[in-house]
Write a structure and sequence with these properties.
Layout (H helix, E strand, L loop, with lengths): L1 H52 L8 H4 L5 H21 L2 H12 L26 E10 L9 E9 L5 E5 L5 H18 L5 E7 L19 E3 L5 H21 L5 H8 L6 E7 L7 H14 L4 E6 L9 E6 L4 E4 L3 E8 L5 H19 L22 E8 L2 E7 L6 E4 L6 H15 L5 E7 L22 E6 L5 H24 L5 H7 L7 E7 L10 H16 L5 E7 L1 H6 L5 H6 L2 E4 L13 H4 L4 E5 L8 E5 L9 H11 L7 E4 L10 H4 L9 E7 L6 E5 L8 E4 L3 H16 L7 E7 L5 H13 L3 E6 L3 H11 L6 E7 L5 H5 L8 H11 L5 E7 L2 H8 L9 E4 L25 E5 L7 E4 L10
Parallel strand pairs: 3-7, 3-8, 4-5, 4-6, 6-7, 13-17, 13-18, 14-15, 14-16, 15-21, 16-17, 24-28, 24-29, 25-26, 25-27, 27-28
Antiparallel strand pairs: 1-2, 1-10, 8-9, 9-10, 11-12, 18-19, 19-20, 22-23, 22-31, 29-30, 30-31
Helix pairs in contact: 1-3, 6-8, 10-17, 11-13, 19-20, 21-23
The chain binds adenosine-5'-triphosphate (ATP).
GO molecular function, one term: ATP binding
Keywords: ATP-binding, Nucleotide-binding
Protein name: DNA segregation ATPase, FtsK/SpoIIIE family
């Protein structure tokens, strides 16, 4: 037992001993590692010290001398000597390599001596600009590379376009040098590219004109713009606007930046822009500085470079610096502080001026003066897809096309400008440009003009020109008194929006682009609804305004995702004021187009439209904020044979697309041309008496159904003879179509002698259809009613009693023989009991009171439907279930109400009677 304990203790002791040994070793190793690290640190500190004082000064430097006894010093010095000599061995051919680098990165005018290019037009329109631009040369001492008493010279160039901004700092009295440097750089750039590919903006806090005077000739063209020294904000806004627009465009096309897009597509779509800002060394105002920084950070990706002279700021993005040392020399961030750059001498002033003139001439020639409408059109029609957006140029700015985009961020547009400023012309330019790019399967147009006149009428087939615009689905003209038609269009669009959103839901997508992807066989064109003088919609305080507002707001909010877009045009103030109280619509119109002198279309502080020249427009995709301004000259699209020429071409190309519906408020519709009339046929027990054309997007008619049921009579109310004849005529003729010959009887009771001819003519027409048709005179009416009241119980066919000015015979009807019912009693019986026995009265009373007298107490129920002509709405309440009727009579229009189908009365357009012309 004891032996066992002793053995165990020995084992534990041995184990502990072994552990102690291991710990000792580890501690020793750690001590050694620590010491080695400390040595290394000391060595590195020493190395840093020597580098900071310079290797060549190490021997004499007192700080280094303190380490004289340090054994590490020698190894540090020898290590640094090695590095230096191997570096200079590499650098021996450095100047030559730099020369080659500049030669390849700064080809042609970018790096070559001016004698080789100054005065010649550039030819480069490639996708990638030179990377470097020469500013001078630098000379270094050859001693360092083992060639004492020699010097080595190499070219110095700076990056600019697509690569970097430039910040130049001057010294006192060096303005001429700075100007020469900037002029040299700009001239190299301008002479590299084809004329017009570069735009230069000049701003000088201290000068209004005379900035780089040798460029004067170019300031008449788009190549150089001199900005007002007090309006830096305008320049920054303009640049910010370009950046946003270009950014949106490139992103939309799937590229991160303009240079990337250029490289990928091999096409230059935008000019390069260089903005030169001359400051005075003082800080910019904080708001300018903020805007400048914002511009600088997005500029390069949009092809914009800044050259800042004495503008103290720390810019975002990459910036190279040139700091002048005196009037010839500078240092630059490209070569570091130890290399002094000898700036190139100024270009000869005369030669720069004449080169600028040549370039200016070339730009003017290239821009070709004002462009025409046909320059807006693509060479091949109908090639674009509208799934994501609609995009089309509408004009030109300095030779470059200016586009309008209708899509996600700019779903709706507001166009404003005083009368004659070119709104209609703009609309034509836009419609032409869009319809030439997008086929009718991609774009459907609904065009409504509240102005008096027929501005869109030419887009529908006409007498002179049978062609039509195949994209147009609806054209409404002369609707200034038919606000209901505007409402009908909004209702139609709203229904279409619902239909699209239901389809989107079914496919589990949220917008039109996705819907088109998921349902490639569906027909989902983008819809553009243009409403010219839209403020008419809100012209009165009535239910039309209330409904139009609600519908417009809904469309403005939700139309975007369903591809339904509104373009609202107006003569500024009136139109825009109409929006007060409807901010939802106004705000959603993020695309603003201001014609010259338009007010309130753009943001309040944005005065661009005030200064816009004639036949121009300010196009702004940023809700009218100044940085969104794009000025464009709009070509003349309204000149004779301009738009029609395009229309004919499109019409031929898309021959299979149906004609648009034309609603012309100034032309009374013809019954014989009405679709509703054309589709009537015999064989119904609910014949329909048409009374007028309804004000709807579809070609529909109003009519009263006449089943054999109580109350199915029609009253026409008012003194307007022509319209009354028209309504009864349409009713009779449409009924006649729904019966086989001989199965319907028409009794035409004419109490007004002046209508006898028309009534006779109608009777003849009905007889021609093979129907029984008899004309009954005023004197015969009491007997007719007595007879009908008597025989209606045995009637088996249908009898339509058409009464003209029935009130004229009221006194005679009221005549009562003792113990016998009067004529009026018979008429009342007829009205009450006739319809359920197939005998219907369709009568014209020349006033509401006279109808009431006819019907007597409790008789209103017997008039199931009425058409009111020149009768005030207030009189109609008793025949409209007591509801308030808003109706002020207007020529050529009537109010129709059918108890059986209507919640409230609707405006109808009596058909034009062909015979009416002859009377
Ligand atoms: N860009 C243009 N170039 C040449 N002529 C133009 C241009 N724009 C408009 N016009 C001419 O000016 C006239 C008025 O233009 P337009 O009818 O478009 O103006 P508007 O603003 O619609 O006026 P209103 O509101 O009174 O109808 C037209 O005869 C048209 O031919």
């Amino acid at each position: 037992m004891r032996r066992k304990v002793v053995q165990q203790r020995a084992r534990v002791t041995n184990a502990l001993e072994a552990l102690r040994h291991q710990i000792g070793l580890a501690l020793g190793a750690a001590r050694n590692a620590h010491r080695a690290a400390e040595d290394e640190l000391a060595r590195l500190r020493l190395e840093q010290l020597v580098v900071s004082v310079g290797l060549e000064n190490a021997a004499t430097d007192p700080q280094v001398a303190e380490h004289r006894n340090d054994p590490a010093l020698a190894s540090v010095l020898s290590w640094l000597e090695n590095v230096k000599s191997s570096f200079y061995a590499d650098w021996a051919d450095g100047p030559e390599r730099l020369r080659q680098l500049v030669a390849s990165a700064a080809p042609g005018p970018a790096g070559r001596p001016p004698g080789e290019w100054l005065g010649r037009l550039g030819t480069f329109d490639g996708t990638k600009p030179p990377e470097l631009w020469r500013i001078g040369s630098a000379t270094v001492d050859g001693t360092s590379i083992g060639r004492p008493s020699t010097t080595l010279t190499f070219d110095v160039a700076v990056p600019l376009l697509d690569e970097s901004h430039l910040s130049i700092t001057s010294v006192p009295k060096s303005r001429a040098t700075v100007d020469a440097l900037v002029e040299n750089l700009l001239m190299r750039v301008l002479s590299t590219f084809t004329p017009g590919a570069v735009r230069v903006h000049l701003w000088d806090v201290g000068q209004l004109t005379a900035i780089l005077p040798n460029f004067y000739a170019l300031s008449r063209t788009s190549a150089v713009t001199v900005h007002d020294p007090t309006r830096l904000v305008d320049l920054l806004d303009e640049l910010a606007g370009h950046i946003r627009r270009i950014h949106a465009h490139t992103l939309q096309a799937g590229y991160p930046s303009l240079p990337a897009m250029r490289r990928a597509t091999g096409k230059r779509v935008e000019p390069w822009r260089i903005a030169v800002l001359y400051g005075n060394g003082e800080d910019l105002a904080p708001e300018h500085l903020r805007d400048l920084k914002r511009v600088a950070s997005g500029a390069l990706a949009a092809g914009i470079s800044l050259i800042l002279v004495d503008v103290p700021t720390v810019l975002g993005g990459s910036v190279e610096t040139i700091s002048l040392l005196d009037d010839r020399r500078a240092i630059t961030s490209m070569t570091g502080p130890d290399v002094v750059v000898d700036l190139d001498p100024p270009l000869p002033a005369g030669q720069v001026a004449s080169a600028a003139s040549r370039l200016a001439e070339a730009i003017v020639t290239r821009q070709g003066g004002p462009r025409s409408f046909f320059d807006l059109l693509p060479t091949e029609f109908g090639q674009e897809c509208s799934a994501r957006e609609l995009r089309a140029p509408v004009g030109f700015h300095e030779g470059e096309p200016v586009e309008v985009v209708i899509g996600d961020t700019t779903p709706h547009a507001l166009i404003g400008g005083p009368s004659g400023s070119g709104k209609t012309n703009f609309l034509y330019a836009l419609l032409g440009s869009l319809t030439a790019r997008y086929s009718p399967d991609e774009l459907a147009l609904y065009l409504l003009d509240f102005k008096e006149g027929v501005s869109f009428a030419g887009l529908a087939p006409g007498k002179k020109d049978e062609s039509w615009l195949p994209h147009a689905r609806l054209i409404g003209v002369n609707v200034n008194t038919d606000r209901e038609f505007g409402l009908a269009l909004l209702r139609f669009l709203s229904d279409e929006m619902r239909r699209r959103s239901a389809a989107a839901k079914e496919f589990e997508v949220t917008n039109i682009a996705e819907l088109r992807e998921q349902d490639p066989d569906g027909h989902w064109p983008r819809i553009v609804a243009v409403i010219d003088e839209f403020q008419y919609l809100f012209a009165e305080r009535d239910s039309v305004t209330a409904m139009a507002t609600a519908l417009l707001e809904d469309l403005a909010r939700r139309g975007r995702s369903q591809g339904i877009h509104l373009i609202l045009a107006s003569q500024d103030i009136a139109g825009i004021e109409a929006f007060w109280g409807k901010p939802a619509v106004f705000e959603q119109c993020t695309l603003r187009i201001a014609m010259p002198k338009a007010r309130r279309v753009l943001a309040e502080a944005n005065q661009a439209a005030v200064a816009a020249p004639r036949w121009h427009a300010v196009i702004n995709h940023e809700s009218g904020v100044a940085h969104g301004n794009q000025l464009a000259h709009i070509p003349d699209a309204s000149a004779k044979n301009t738009f029609p020429a395009l229309q004919r071409q499109l019409w031929q190309q898309y021959a299979t697309h149906g004609r648009p519906r034309l609603f012309d408020g100034a032309v009374a519709p013809r019954l014989s041309e009405s679709t509703a009339f054309g589709t009537l046929a015999p064989g119904t027990d609910r014949p329909r008496a048409l009374v007028g054309q309804s004000i709807e997007v579809a070609d529909n008619a109003h009519g009263i159904e006449l089943p054999t049921a109580p109350g199915r009579n029609l009253a026409v109310l008012g003194s307007s003879r022509t319209e009354a004849l028209s309504v009864l005529d349409a009713a009779a003729r449409s009924l006649a179509r729904q019966f086989e010959a001989g199965t319907a009887e028409f009794l035409l009771g004419c109490a007004v002698d002046t209508c006898l001819d028309e009534v006779d003519a109608l009777a003849n027409l009905l007889a021609e259809h093979g129907h029984k048709a008899a004309v009954v005179t005023a004197a015969e009416l009491p007997a007719l009613f007595a007879d009908l009241a008597e025989r209606m119980s045995h009637s088996d066919g249908r009898t339509f009693v058409m009464l003209y000015g029935v009130d004229a015979v009221l006194p005679a009807l009221e005549h009562k023989e003792l113990g016998k019912p009067s004529g009026l009693d018979h008429l009342r019986t007829l009205l009450k009991q006739g319809p359920s026995k197939g005998v219907h009265v369709l009568g014209w009373w020349r006033g509401v009171a006279r109808l009431k007298d006819t019907l007597g107490f409790n008789g209103t129920e017997d008039i199931g439907a009425w058409v009111a002509l020149d009768v005030q709405g207030s009189e109609l309440a008793p025949f409209c279930a007591g509801q308030v009727v808003h109706w002020s009579p207007r020529p050529g229009r009537a109010l129709f109400f059918d108890r059986g189908t209507h919640a409230s009365p609707e405006v109808t357009i009596p058909f034009h009677r062909p015979e009416a012309d002859d009377v």
